[in-house]
Each structure stands twice: as structure tokens, then as C-alpha cells.
């Protein structure tokens, strides 16, 4: 099966139709490529390429921004021929030399390691509508690629080149000039070059006092543990090659500048693209002043045809047509349109606003109206902020065309961040006016291009342009109504969230659409002018949304503020339960396994006990149990589960009893009590209805969790085939459920069975997906566990260098978070070190693991740890065979006491080899045979195959009693 990043049909993706091919022209940098003539020019002069090099260039340029695999290129350039990859490399090298690729920092072709080649320069198609490049292989958070961008191709190419050479570029220009559009387009153009690691952080939806480092950290999935997580961000990004886009910095200029400078200094592989209406003025910044769209010069004689050569005119005509008016560009009005565009300074938003009225007033009248307000256009008010002066003229002129009711409603609608539904607009805008009047006014604002209407397959939404919104907000503030409208806005979205939470089949998609408004409501509610009672309720109601969006660090920020304000608002107990539960869960899932997380969960549990909420107690006991397991407090976790069972039994809730017995079974596994574990889990599985219960809650409970837990016990007790069948079926069902967090909870628990049976290759694809999902959902602990599993699988296929590095790195990170089960991960590390001749280091590693395990009573893997210690002793620079024998005997004893036949066999194999080495063949044979003969299945699994082979070596030549099994 082809990798995801490969095109399944290169011809369909890259090749134009026959008619299109006859007219096709591709332009990039100083080059002009005419496929129909098989001609390429540089600055108007022909450039000579071989036929193959020309075909390769054409194939790549047609898919600019996409990775094209080597196999596809060879199949297209040499169809039906058997060609070696070296031939492709030779032509690529010749092509690079001919284009001057790499000279003075200019780049056209990029090699994507292990994948293929990508044409990284911006490609334009004169007189053709260029399809937006797509990069379906990459997971990123960029907004959609703008599909109607006009006249910015060269700017994107210039910014891309500056980013390659300077690393830090700030796109500067007045409001409405298109900085965000250019930044997003640049991000899409560079996706392949950065391997998909392009991250967009929009600051335009935040207030002036927004905690910029916290917002950037939350967006990147970094836990916010202080008011200023800048140092943690610098550490996170230190060795990452990434393009970070900070959009709309002007209203938080000081904080954005300080953060950008620090990250630039601390992260040498980080590239930063910022947009702002003023310079950041910090070290490393290269300023790119985004120019206005080219406009016709004054007194130019224009026709409809030559006027369209100017990007500003082209934009004007496109937007006028999109407005649904009857305007058409003609020779008669071309000069007036050109004059309008020039007088509007080529600013795209100003042109768009003007074009929206041309169907009503006509181009000549628009010029006259503009002339009357020329002083406002150029100078603005002296008291205005610098970033508002130029665009303020255009906005104010449009604003003055509105009726007084329209101005009032526009001001009220400025409270919205991003887009809004009609219901939301009406709810916030209405006061004394009747509903029909409001609808009429909203329609009028749409008609006059002050309010955009987004139609399509999704429900209709309205949106104010950011600059128009800022201007209207000033008018709202001047009216004295800003506080009342902001309160109404916050209450509206509180009602929306509460309405969603009341539904049994909670669907957060509607709330997700309103995330910008919900965040703005939180910021206002917690501000000095806000309403603390609304703030607490809003923070509590928005928790499921933050968890759905995996913005756990930001959730922690708002919930912490809500808890601080809780006492002064005399909030409800249920709000307190939700807030404390969320804060404890958020800290746990972001890797903060501290007393604070435990204290908040315990506080929530106390509140549920106070009101007699049994279901809430069961959920919180589950959360506490998970936290205690993560933190390595296994005896406490067992006590927690026992308390939960008592609560469940007293409530006569059989499902709750089953859930708590599952927790008891898991606790017993960690403590090495496998018979008790199996008894508890089998009892839990007898209860029907142990199903997914993630809806509206912060726990996951499902029969697959119980099945995987039971499978582990079965393997340990000597039933590897049953264990493998059960765990494969469970993982398959979890994947089919398409619940990423459930998948991330299930796979680490199942991995041990794949590893013990020698089937790590079978689950390696699962591990790769696991790491992606854990990173995407900010599951810090689980992501590190996934990286450890990946390291173990690499070691299993003898990729020692990268495997050791990955496993070591994940262990160090988990150790820094006080993750309890890290001792179990040191064991495969010690085994790999011993196998590669680092016996002394292996012994230190496994001794540390055993000490850690005994300290917290982590007995689940103790027999295997003792076996691994024996391997390390035998691989020391001075092998200690006597101590190795003692460790193996101890491993056998512990395994027998635990009833862990699977571990007993692994220890017996090690001891038999040691005795064989000392000449005690018969003793070794008899001991290993006594363990092997107790198995009734699994004879094709790794340990049993190894044991059978060793028994054959130890047996007299005439004996073949084990060959049949």
C-alpha cells in the first residue's frame, strides 16, 4: 500500500487537460516554463535542459508544495522502463545546477528524506486560476489555504526565502493589507520543507491583556505551570525544526516581542513568522513590509483589458462580482476603478469594502465620495492609534454611510470574536427593537459589506472583519454600553454551553464553532469589569470543550481562576465538583503527577460525598486510582479501589461494583497478585453494560480495558495464545470505535503481550499512530510511554542506536515527572545494554529499576527484572556467574509464588543456559522441562520456541520428546 503522502494517481493530480495544456504557463522566480513548447526561460532568455530534466521539472512544478515520490517520478518520466534510482538522482542534480538551486539562499527543489522530492518555490500561472496546493500528508493546525488570494505570489516567495536565511521574519503593514492571508499561504508553501511542522497561533482573538506565552504554550500542548511559561517553551522548542506563525501581534506587542526574541535566541532550529501592524523591534527580526497591491498610476489611460493587469483592480472586480451587484468592468469605467484602487492605497480590505458598494453607487460616484473624505483617508485622527490611521479612513467612511440604527447594531455585534450565528447576533443585538427590525438591519449591514455572510454546506454565519470590529468596538465603548453587551454576550454563550451539557447525547460541535467567543467571554468575565458569578459558571460549563479540543493547559488556567473566585461568588457545590475534578484531571493528563492534582480530586470527592452523588464518587475514585497508578502509589491505589468497591456495594449499583472490581484487578496486577487480579476482572466482565462512558465525563470505562487487563494475567499465568487472541480482538475493537483517547489508554497495557510473544512488528503501526494521537490530544505521560514502546520495537529489530536513544530519552522524561512504572521500562533498556556489550551499565540500570520497584511495591515485573539482572551480571566486563545464578533462582522463586508461569519460563531458560555453560546439562534439562511441560498452548510463541530449542540441545541425541510440541 502506498504511503499516505504519495499520490495514488500522479497524472490526475499533476497533468492538465489537453485544452489547458495548450495554454499552460508556469512562472517561478525569474523562470517562465511553457510546457506546450517544451521551453523554459530565465529572465526572458532560453535555458537549455535535457528532455528528462525538463519532464522532471514540469512534473514537480505542477505539484508545487506536494511531495512526489521517487517511484512516481520514475514511472512518469520513464514509463514502462526499468530504471535505477541513480538515473533520477543524476537528472535532479543537473536540474538543480541549471536552476541555480541553493545559490544566494534561493531554493527550488527540496529532498524529503525517505519520501521523494518537493518543488518548494511559489508557482504562479498567468491568466489561469491556480489551484491551492494541498498537503494531505501533514498534520498541522494552519487555517485553510486562501483560495481567492490576488497578487501575493511574489510576496510569499520573498518571505519564504527570508525565512530560510534569516529565521525570523515579521510581516508588517496597516490593518487590512492581508498580512494573515500571506502568512497562512507562506505556511502552506513551506509545509513540505518543514516536514509538516508548521504551527499557527492566532492572537487576534485575544484581548490586550492576553497571557501570550500561556496561549502559545497551550496551543503547542505544553502544560502551563506558572504565570509565564516562556522558559518551558524555550526548552520544548530548543532542538525542534519548526515554523511558528504568531499572527496579529500588534495589540499584545510587548508580550509577543519578548516571547519571540527569547524563542529566537533559545531555539536555533526554530523559524518564526510574525504579523503585526508595527515592528516588534527585537533581536534577529527581519522586517518584511507587505506592500499594497499594485495600482494603476495616475492619469493612466486604462481599458478593461489592461486595467486587469493590476492586482488591485483584479481584486476589486472579483469582490464586486462576489457582492452580487450588476457591476461589470468596461472601458468606460476602467479609469474610475483604477483611480479608486489607487486612492485606496492598494489596501485589500479597503478595496473590498469599496467594491461592495459599487453596484449601488457606481464607480464615478464612489470616487466623488472618496474625494470628500480624503483628509480622513491619509491622516486619520491625531488621537487615533498609529495602526488605525490609514484603514480608519476607509472604515469610517463606510461607517458614515450607515443609518443610526445600523451603527448601533454594528457596535453591539463587535463584541463577537470571529463569526456568529444569526441566533447569536439577534440575541446580543436586540434591546428595544423588535425581531423583524433587527433582521432588516442585519441584512442592511450585509448588503453594505460591513458584515460578511458565509454561506455553504454549513449553517449560515456572519462575520465582522477584524479591523471593522475594532473600529465598531470603539464606538460601542464610547456609547457606554460595552459592559452590558459584554455581559449579555457572556450569558448567551454560558446558556449555549449549559444547553449542550443537558443533552444525554452531548455534541460539542456547535460549541467548538464558538470557541473564540467562549474564550472572549471568559476573558471579559474574569476582567476587572467582568462578572465573577458568570465567570465561574462559564469556566465550569466550558470544561468539556477544552478537553475535547485538548487545550488542557488553557483549561487549567481558567479553572484555577474560577476556583480562586469560587468563594466570593458562593458558587454551587456542583460547580465546585466540576472545577476541582477538571483541574486534577488536567494536571494529571499533562504530566503533573503532584499533590496538587491529588488534592483537587480529593476535594471533588469530598463534595460528591457531601451531596450523596454516588455516580460522581465512582468517577472520581477512578480518576484518583489512575493518578495513583501514574504516580507509582500502588498500595494506596489498592486502598482507593477497595473504598470504591465498598461505595458501589452500598449503593446496590452492579455496574459500579463491576467498575471498581476492574480497578481492584488492575491494582493487584501491579502488586504481583495475579490470581486475585484474574478473579476480580472475570467478576467484572460477568456484569453486562461495562461500556464506554466517556460522554460528558473525564473517565473512560469499557469492556476492552477489562479484556486487555485479563489478557495480561492470562499471559503471565501461561496462556499466551488466549492472551494474544483476546488483546488483538480488544485493540481491533478500540480502533474501530475511533476514539483516540480510548486507544491511547488501551495500547500501552496491551503492548506487553505483543512484546512477550515476540510480535512487536505486528503492533508497530499502532505505536506510530499512538504517538501522533497522544501528541495531538496533549496526553503528555502517554506520549512518553509511546516513545518508549517505539524504542523497544526498534531494539527488537536490532536498530540499536536509535532504539536506545529513544528509550533512554523517554525514561528520563518520565522519571522527571515521577512516573511510577518507569522501573518496568528500565528492564528492556538493561537487556539491550547487556546484549550490546555494556554489561556494567546494564547492571546499574537494572539494579536501579529493582530498587525503585521494591520501594513502591511494583511487583508485576519483578521476576523478569531479576532475570534481566542475571543477564547483566553475565555480560559484565568481569562476569559474575555466581550472582547471576542467585538472581535467576530468585526470579524462579518469585514467579512461582506469584503463579506467573510465563515469567517462570523466561527465568528457567536463563538458568538452563547458565547451567549448560557450566557443564550441568542434565540438571538444566530437567529443570527447564519441568516448567515447559506445564504449558498447554502457545508453542509457537517466542519463549516456548526458545525453550524447545534449548531442550533439544540439552537432550541426548536419541531423545526427541519435545520436538512434537
Automatic annotation (TrEMBL):
A GO MF term: DNA binding
GO process annotations (BP): phosphorelay signal transduction system; regulation of DNA-templated transcription
Keyword DNA-binding recorded: yes
Residue intervals of the OmpR/PhoB-type domain: 23-121
Domain of life from the UniProt record: Bacteria
Keywords, ordered alphabetically: DNA-binding
DNA-binding region per Swiss-Prot/TrEMBL record: 23-121
InterPro entries cross-referenced by the UniProt entry: HTH_77 (IPR058852), OmpR/PhoB-type_DNA-bd (IPR001867), P-loop_NTPase (IPR027417), Sig_transdc_resp-reg_C-effctor (IPR016032), TPR-like_helical_dom_sf (IPR011990), WH-like_DNA-bd_sf (IPR036388)
Keyword Transmembrane helix: no
Pfam families assigned: HTH_77, Trans_reg_C
Stored Gene3D superfamilies: P-loop containing nucleotide triphosphate hydrolases (3.40.50.300), Tetratricopeptide repeat domain (1.25.40.10), Winged helix-like DNA-binding domain superfamily/Winged helix DNA-binding domain (1.10.10.10)
Protein name per its UniProtKB record: Transcriptional regulator
Annotated source species: Bradyrhizobium frederickii
Amino acid at each position: 500500500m502506498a504511503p499516505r503522502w504519495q499520490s495514488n494517481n500522479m497524472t490526475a493530480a499533476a497533468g492538465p487537460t489537453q485544452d489547458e495544456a495548450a495554454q499552460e504557463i508556469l512562472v517561478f522566480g525569474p523562470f517562465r516554463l511553457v510546457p506546450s513548447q517544451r521551453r523554459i526561460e530565465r529572465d526572458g532568455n532560453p535555458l537549455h535542459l535535457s528532455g528528462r530534466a525538463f519532464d522532471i521539472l514540469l512534473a514537480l512544478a505542477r505539484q508545487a508544495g506536494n511531495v512526489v515520490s521517487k517511484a512516481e517520478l520514475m514511472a512518469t518520466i520513464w514509463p514502462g522502463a526499468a530504471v535505477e534510482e541513480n538515473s533520477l538522482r543524476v537528472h535532479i542534480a543537473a536540474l538543480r545546477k541549471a536552476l541555480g538551486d541553493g545559490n544566494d539562499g534561493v531554493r527550488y527543489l527540496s529532498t524529503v528524506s525517505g519520501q521523494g522530492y518537493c518543488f518548494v518555490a511559489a508557482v504562479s500561472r498567468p491568466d489561469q486560476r491556480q489551484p491551492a496546493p494541498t498537503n494531505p500528508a501533514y498534520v498541522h493546525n494552519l487555517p485553510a489555504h486562501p483560495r481567492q488570494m490576488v497578487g501575493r505570489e511574489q510576496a510569499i516567495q520573498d518571505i519564504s526565502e527570508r525565512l530560510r536565511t534569516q529565521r525570523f521574519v515579521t510581516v508588517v503593514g496597516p490593518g487590512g493589507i492581508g498580512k494573515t492571508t500571506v502568512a497562512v499561504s507562506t505556511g502552506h508553501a513551506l509545509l513540505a520543507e518543514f516536514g509538516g511542522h508548521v504551527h499557527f497561533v492566532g492572537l487576534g482573538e485575544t484581548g490586550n491583556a492576553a497571557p501570550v506565552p500561556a496561549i502559545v504554550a497551550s496551543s503547542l500542548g505544553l502544560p502551563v505551570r506558572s504565570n509565564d511559561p516562556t522558559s518551558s517553551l524555550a526548552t520544548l522548542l530548543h532542538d525542534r525544526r519548526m515554523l511558528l506563525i504568531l499572527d496579529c501581534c500588534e495589540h499584545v506587542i510587548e508580550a509577543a516581542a519578548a516571547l519571540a526574541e527569547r524563542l529566537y535566541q533559545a531555539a536555533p532550529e526554530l523559524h518564526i513568522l510574525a504579523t503585526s501592524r508595527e515592528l516588534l523591534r527585537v533581536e534577529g527580526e527581519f522586517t518584511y513590509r507587505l506592500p499594497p497591491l499594485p495600482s494603476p498610476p495616475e492619469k493612466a489611460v486604462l481599458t478593461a483589458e489592461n486595467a486587469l493587469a493590476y492586482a488591485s483592480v483584479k481584486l476589486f472586480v472579483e469582490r464586486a462580482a462576489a457582492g452580487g451587484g450588476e457591476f461589470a468592468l468596461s472601458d468606460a469605467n476602467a479609469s474610475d476603478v483604477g483611480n479608486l484602487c489607487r486612492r485606496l492605497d492598494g489596501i485589500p480590505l479597503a478595496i473590498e469594502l469599496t467594491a461592495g458598494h459599487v453596484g449601488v453607487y457606481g464607480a464615478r460616484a464612489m470616487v466623488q465620495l472618496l474625494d470628500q473624505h480624503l483628509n480622513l483617508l491619509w491622516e486619520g485622527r491625531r488621537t487615533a492609534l498609529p495602526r488605525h490611521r490609514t484603514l480608519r479612513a476607509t472604515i469610517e467612511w463606510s461607517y458614515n454611510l450607515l443609518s443610526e440604527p445600523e451603527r448601533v447594531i454594528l457596535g453591539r455585534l463587535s463584541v463577537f470574536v470571529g463569526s456568529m450565528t444569526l441566533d447569536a447576533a439577534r440575541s446580543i443585538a436586540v434591546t428595544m427593537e423588535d425581531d423583524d427590525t433587527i433582521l432588516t438591519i442585519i441584512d442592511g449591514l450585509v448588503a453594505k459589506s460591513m458584515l460578511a455572510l458565509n454561506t455553504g454546506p454549513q449553517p449560515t454565519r456572519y462575520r465582522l472583519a477584524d479591523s471593522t470590529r475594532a473600529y465598531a468596538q470603539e464606538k460601542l465603548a464610547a456609547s457606554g454600553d460595552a459592559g452590558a453587551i459584554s455581559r449579555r454576550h457572556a450569558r448567551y454563550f454560558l446558556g449555549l454551553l449549559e444547553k449542550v451539557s443537558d443533552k444525554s447525547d452531548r455534541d460539542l460541535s456547535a460549541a467548538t464553532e464558538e470557541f473564540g467567543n467562549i474564550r472572549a467571554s471568559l476573558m471579559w468575565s474574569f476582567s476587572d469589569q467582568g462578572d465573577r458569578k458568570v465567570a465561574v459558571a462559564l469556566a465550569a460549563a466550558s470544561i468539556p470543550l477544552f478537553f475535547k479540543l485538548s487545550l488542557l493547559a488553557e483549561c487549567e488556567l481558567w479553572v484555577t481562576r474560577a476556583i480562586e473566585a469560587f468563594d466570593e461568588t458562593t458558587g454551587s457545590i456542583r460547580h465546585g465538583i466540576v472545577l476541582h475534578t477538571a483541574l486534577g484531571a488536567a494536571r494529571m493528563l499533562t504530566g503533573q503527577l503532584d499533590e496538587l492534582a491529588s488534592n483537587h480530586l480529593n476535594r471533588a470527592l469530598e463534595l460528591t460525598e457531601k451531596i450523596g452523588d454516588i455516580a460522581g464518587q465512582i468517577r472520581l475514585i477512578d480518576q484518583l486510582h489512575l493518578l495513583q497508578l501514574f504516580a507509582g502509589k500502588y498500595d494506596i491505589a489498592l486502598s482507593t479501589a477497595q473504598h470504591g468497591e465498598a461505595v458501589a456495594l452500598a449503593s446496590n449499583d452492579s455496574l459500579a461494583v463491576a467498575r471498581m472490581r476492574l480497578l481492584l484487578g488492575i491494582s493487584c496486577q501491579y502488586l504481583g497478585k495475579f490470581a486475585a487480579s484474574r478473579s476480580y476482572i472475570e467478576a467484572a466482565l460477568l456484569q453486562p453494560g461495562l461500556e464506554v462512558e466517556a460522554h460528558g465525563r473525564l473517565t473512560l470505562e469499557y469492556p476492552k480495558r477489562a479484556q486487555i487487563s485479563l489478557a495480561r494475567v492470562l499471559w503471565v499465568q501461561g496462556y499466551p495464545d488466549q492472551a494474544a487472541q483476546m488483546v488483538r480482538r480488544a485493540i481491533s475493537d478500540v480502533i474501530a470505535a475511533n476514539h483516540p483517547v480510548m486507544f491511547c489508554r488501551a495500547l500501552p497495557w496491551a503492548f506487553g503481550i505483543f512484546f512477550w510473544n515476540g510480535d512487536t512488528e505486528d503492533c508497530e503501526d499502532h505505536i506510530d499512530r499512538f504517538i501522533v494521537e497522544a501528541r495531538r490530544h496533549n496526553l503528555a505521560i502517554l506520549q512518553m510511554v509511546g516513545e518508549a514502546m517505539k524504542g523497544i520495537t526498534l531494539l527488537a529489530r536490532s536498530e540499536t542506536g536509535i532504539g536506545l536513544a529513544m528509550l533512554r530519552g523517554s525514561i528520563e522524561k518520565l522519571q522527571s515527572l515521577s512516573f511510577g512504572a518507569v522501573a518496568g521500562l528500565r528492564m528492556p533498556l538493561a537487556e539491550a545494554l547487556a546484549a550490546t556489550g555494556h554489561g556494567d551499565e546494564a547492571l546499574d540500570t537494572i539494579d536501579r529499576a529493582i530498587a525503585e520497584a521494591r520501594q513502591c511495591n511494583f511487583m508485576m515485573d519483578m521476576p523478569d527484572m531479576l532475570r534481566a539482572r542475571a543477564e547483566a551480571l553475565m555480560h559484565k566486563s568481569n562476569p559474575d556467574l555466581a550472582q547471576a545464578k542467585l538472581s535467576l533462582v530468585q526470579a524462579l522463586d518469585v514467579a512461582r509464588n506469584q503463579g506467573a508461569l510465563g515469567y517462570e519460563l523466561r527465568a528457567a531458560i536463563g538458568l538452563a543456559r547458565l547451567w549448560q555453560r557450566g557443564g550441568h546439562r542434565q540438571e538444566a534439562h530437567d529443570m527447564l522441562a519441568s516448567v515447559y511441560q506445564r504449558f498447554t498452548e502457545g508453542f509457537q510463541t517466542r519463549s516456548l520456541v526458545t525453550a524447545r530449542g534449548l531442550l533439544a540441545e540439552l537432550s541426548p541425541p536419541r531423545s526427541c520428546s519435545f520436538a512434537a510440541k
